[in-house]
């Protein structure tokens, strides 16, 4: 028998908060065609990952996206960059589970591949006042699924990886957590199944 899980570590995007680039782009444009252009230049760009990794900043991301958009859409781009986190919604059942787990004595943490502006999005999550710690890729210059970022979280908050369950909507990120010595759960939207997985590891 392994050690019981005492800590649950949540990803942010599509676990605690929605992340939907095409939808965000549509909120700041007037036609589906313009939304597709904006999404491709911003959220769908390879540079978005570099933003999350801390390799580039928002100024570089803006310049790149401007270069890939007609000038008439530059105001839409700037509005989207400034306000898209407000369109991200809390996934209420997962947040409620996180709060219940904290009240039961579990440690609750967030580990996210996200930019330095993460709190503009994550700050809307109801679980945040209950969270014991947050690790963000852009701040650390490393990203999931690199096992180093999971190890960093454990070292920073004095956690035993064997006592941690990591929850992510990306299977590759779950593999990285397992390599780092954690349990991992690939979240596909079924919160009851997620809770059952937690209970089985206690």
Automatic annotation (TrEMBL):
<protein>
    <submittedName>
        <fullName>HAD family phosphatase</fullName>
    </submittedName>
</protein>
<dbReference type="InterPro" id="IPR006439">
    <property type="entry name" value="HAD-SF_hydro_IA"/>
</dbReference>
<dbReference type="Pfam" id="PF00702">
    <property type="entry name" value="Hydrolase"/>
</dbReference>
<dbReference type="InterPro" id="IPR023214">
    <property type="entry name" value="HAD_sf"/>
</dbReference>
<dbReference type="InterPro" id="IPR036412">
    <property type="entry name" value="HAD-like_sf"/>
</dbReference>
<dbReference type="InterPro" id="IPR023198">
    <property type="entry name" value="PGP-like_dom2"/>
</dbReference>
